[in-house]
Amino acid sequence: MEIRENAIEILMERVEAYTTTAFELSKFRLLEAITRIVASLIPKMCVWLLISMFFLVLSAAIALLLGELLGKNWYGLFIVAAFYLLAAGVLYFFLRRKIKKVTGDYIIKQVLQ
Questions:
Q1: 16-55 per-position pLDDT tens digit
Q2: 75 assigned to some structural domain
Q3: Which residues contact 91 (CB under 8 A, 6 or more apart)?
């Protein structure tokens, strides 16, 4: 009888150790996935920031050029602003779902690697 109780205690200790180890392993896998996603996003965000700065300066230059050609600087600013409003509308109404899907697929792919 005592041997049986000892066996059950040993079995319970092993089950406890297994569940603790499995939980720790799950935490480390999650941490690895999050780290991989963040590590892959930071360089891309830096590149996008530089590209955005380029387009910001380019937009200002185009606006000033258009304004000079049209006779008043603010005409060029309005034309460039209208272009960005039109581009934002196209992105929102036509490409929003596609961008959301591509982003979601990217994150899932990174987590499952």
A1: 999 999 999 988 888 888 888 888 888 888 999 999 999 9
A2: yes
A3: 99
